[in-house]
Amino acid sequence: MKIGVAADITDCTVAVTDLAMAVENAGLESLFFTQRTHFTVSRRELLEQEGHEMDANLLDPFVALGAASAVTSRIGLGTGACYVAVYDPLILAKQVATLDQISRGRFLFGVTPGWDELEIGNHGIDPALRWQVMREKMLALKALWTEPEAEFHGRFVDFEPVLLGLKPFQQPHPPILVGSHGPRGLARVAEYGDEWFPVLSGKLDLEGDMKELARLCRDSGRDPAPVTIFLWELDEEAVERCAQAGVSRCVVYVYPERRDDVDSFLERCADAARRFNRA
After folding, report:
1. Which long-range contacts (CB under 8 A, 24 or more apart) does 205-208 make?
2. Phi, psi of 80 (to 5 degrees)
3. N or C: which end of the chain has fewer CB within 10 A?
4. Are 69 and 99 in contact (CB under 8 A)?
5. Do 76 and 30 contact (CB within 8 A), yes or no?
6. Residues linked to residue 171 through DSSP beta bridges, in sequence order
7. Per-residue tens of pLDDT for the chain, all 279 residues
8. Gap between the Cα atoms of 176 and 108, Å rounded
9. Strand partners, 209
């Protein structure tokens, strides 16, 4: 099982390039950056909650991952996760292809429609429809990446035939990691995802959901989708549970405020990676 890191990267944290080099030098497999497009003032109370203190300062993940790509050569670089519903798919398709090209095929496309309804609404998206919007945009993205002359005509996305000569380095496109839970979430993975990307919590029936996902994939005529689990902390029991369940990657959250703390955290992650790589 592979071990990676997910970080809230801001203007107040360890520098993007320093963090990326530290993750690679530690022997870890991947680095994911979280996203918020903006922070609504009416949700100010969230800034008092652990894990959200610097949400208003998050860097754009695509720009940050581009910088990380320039100073690394091995680790996977992922969005954890991109708010697909708020993007113009024609622009997002080029952003993803660009990042995958400059990283030479190391991009991991974690996707979600977003959870903050006020944030989604400020982009002109009806929050109640965000999953439907995301589905259409994902289908449009896949068409843009794989077809020489792509067109799409749907409820939320509509464009005439276009030439997007820039294709991703990975073929047919970077792995799509769908962040979603429950029966509908598993169905989304089976329809347009390459991997499942849930957060491990007390509400998640990991083993049961993985079996159901494998069934859905088989019914769709495809191999079972790999699973990447997001962990809020490096919990040895949780990592062991994931390994026993057959999870392919664990991504552990860190807020990289001080370099000394980051180095200590990465050392612990590296120890876990070595142990589970030998298993």
Report:
1. 206/241, 206/242, 206/245, 206/247, 207/245
2. -130, 60
3. C
4. yes
5. yes
6. none
7. 999 999 999 999 999 999 999 999 999 999 999 999 998 898 888 778 776 778 889 999 999 999 999 999 999 999 999 999 999 999 999 999 999 999 999 999 999 999 899 999 999 999 999 999 999 999 999 999 999 999 999 999 999 999 989 999 999 999 999 999 999 999 999 999 999 999 999 889 999 999 999 999 999 999 999 999 999 999 999 999 999 999 999 999 999 999 999 999 999 999 999 988 764
8. 7
9. none
Q: Which amino acid is at 182?
A: G
184: its two tokens: 């509908």
Sign of the torsion angle spanned by Cα atoms 115, 184, 147, 140: negative
Assess contact for 255 and 7: CB atoms under 8 A. Answer: yes
Going by their DSSP bridges, the two strands 150-153 and 158-162 should be labelled as: antiparallel
Burial of 27 (0-12, 13-18, 19+ CB in 10 A): middle
133 Cβ contact list (under 8 Å, min separation 6):
85, 113, 125, 156
Which residue is associated with the tokens 């982009």?
A: 123
Q: Phi and psi for 29 in degrees, rounded to 5?
A: -90, -30
Spell out the residues 6+ positions from residue 68 whose beta carbon is closer than 8 angstroms to its own.
16, 17, 19, 20, 31, 33, 77
| Token pair for 260 | 């000394």
Residues sharing a CB contact under 8 Å with residue 107, sequence separation 6 or more, in sequence order: 65, 76, 77, 78, 96, 99, 100, 168, 169, 170, 174
Q: In whole angstroms, what is the distance from residue 146 CA to residue 138 CA?
A: 12
